[in-house]
Fold this sequence. Notes:
- This protein is mainly alpha-helical.
- The protein has one domain.
- Helix content is 91%, strand content 0%.
- It is built from 3 helices and no strands.
- The chain has helices spanning 5-64, 66-94, 99-125.
- The radius of gyration is 16 Å and the shape is globular.
Amino acid sequence: xxxxxxxxxxxxxxxxxxxxxxxxxxxxxxxxxxxxxxxxxxxxxxxxxxxxxxxxxxxxxxxxxxxxxxxxxxxxxxxxxxxxxxxxxxxxxxxxxxxxxxxxxxxxxxxxxxxxxxxxxxxxxxxx
Length: 128
């Protein structure tokens, strides 16, 4: 594995948010209205940025050593989930945002993008 594989995966996953995001924004917007759509867009953006950050950090860690990479992958996951939560609280504190819509968008986009990336990676390994 080359060090920049993780960064490329993070960027590719974030790029897939350009497909997932509009679908979530429209779906949540239909249920919660314009404020919900805006909050959903913010939520998807938070998740996309999180995937890019994860890729960059993991690529950096791998350049240091494979053992360090494994430690950062494990601890980094927990830290990044905490960071998502902190950013959501920060956004909710700074702006009057539809919190339930943002939360649903974050959870849904995170799970969909993670599953999509797992499928893509597993297909590449099998040569499809």
